[in-house]
Specification:
With about 350 residues, the chain is of the alpha+beta class. The chain has eight helices and 15 strands. It has one domain (about 5-355).
Length: about 350
């Protein structure tokens, strides 16, 4: 079974719903680390401590995902049962330019005697960024400009999906007080979580505070989630949820499943990231021309990577196809999601008629 096939079935239902973990693989780029601006000794020490905290999240992990709804805010709302899952995850630093660090997560799936990788999420960290890519609803994102005074000493975290399209971003400061290194941003909007995207239609997104903190035995991603719905034309929080994702070092699984996959496909994913990067122009927006889970985007890209690993296609040919997929399902004319869907359908009809 190929990873993309498993992803379409079981992964969407359970593994990615909880975010099975895997020890990602690529090596750090050889470019010398860059120290931004002119820092005094204390600022530089803080900057290096921040960097060390970010890079400490790399490793091979057993991951536990716990999500518990705590309260409902609309009449007759029934708080859902807790959602708990886990698995193995590899996290690797795939790029380090000093003021920019990229961490790739890869899942290691064990299905009977089979073991295979599934490329998971990516987190990019930028120091004192001029802009941050934030979700604005309806499968659209804005590269929001940040005033210089507001970004001093802070890092943005931008989270990307399995095929490197964006999910959400935020800006916050790392603190190292009371024996804990932690990064906590203000609440930002993020898309409907994958674990509920196929089972719930009563809300459209999450206003989330995401805290990352190092622990004595790994790290933790804590979430304070407010679930947002449109009711009578107004935004309404219908429920709150607490999430705790724990990453504990583990060497009891075959991390080479992930590292071998990355070694075979990292050049492909580098070019895919460049295509998405071209859309991230500061002060502008872009969106997808699909609704809900972007399966038409990620399924072909994951399959192209699988084919590279299996020797069925070259990286160059796969990159050419990936560019076509991304171009087909993205637009800078975001309007509303409904308008984008209508335009996309009309365009597809015209192409079919021309053929």
């Amino acid at each position: 079974m190929m990873a993309s096939e498993f992803f379409r079935s079981a992964m969407l239902a359970c593994a990615l719903a909880g975010g099975v973990a895997l020890s990602a693989c690529a090596s750090v780029g050889g470019a010398a680390a860059k120290t931004p601006g002119v820092m005094d000794e204390a600022e530089h020490a803080k900057f290096e401590r921040d960097r060390a905290a970010i890079k400490a999240m790399a490793g091979d992990y057993r991951v536990r995902f716990d999500f518990i709804e705590t309260v409902g805010f609309t009449p007759d709302y029934k708080v859902r049962e807790p959602d708990r899952s886990g698995g193995y995850e590899v996290v690797r630093v795939i790029e380090d330019r000093g003021d920019f660090i990229s961490l790739q997560h890869i899942l290691v799936i064990e299905a009977g005697d089979e073991k295979f990788p599934v490329k998971h999420w990516r987190q990019d960290w930028r120091y004192e960024p001029a802009s941050v890519l934030v979700f604005i609803g309806g499968n659209a994102w804005e590269n929001r400009l940040i005033d210089k005074a507001d970004r001093e000493g802070k890092w943005s975290q931008q989270v990307y999906q399995v095929e490197d399209s964006p999910r959400y971003g935020a800006l916050g400061a790392w603190t190292h007080e009371y024996g804990v290194s932690a990064w906590t941003p203000p609440a930002e909007l993020r898309p409907l979580p994958r674990r509920e995207s196929t089972t719930r239609k009563d809300y459209y997104g999450v206003l989330a505070v995401n805290r990352h903190a190092l622990t004595s035995d790994g790290w933790v991603h804590e979430q304070d989630n407010s679930k947002l719905a449109m009711i009578d034309g107004r935004k309404q929080i219908i429920a709150r949820e607490q999430g705790v994702n724990t990453y504990r070092p583990n060497n009891q699984f075959d991390a080479s499943v992930a590292t071998n996959y990355w070694a075979a496909t990292k050049d492909f994913w580098t070019e895919v990231r460049k295509e998405w990067d071209r859309l991230e122009v500061p002060g502008t927006s872009f969106g997808l021309t699909v609704q809900g889970e972007p399966e038409p985007v990620y399924e072909p890209l994951l399959e192209l990577a699988d084919n590279i690993e299996a020797g069925k296609t070259t990286t160059a040919d796969a990159v050419a196809e990936a560019r076509k997929v991304i171009a087909k399902f993205t637009t800078r004319d975001i309007g509303t999601l409904e308008q984008r869907l209508v335009k996309a359908a009309a365009g597809s009809a015209m192409m079919a008629a021309a053929e």
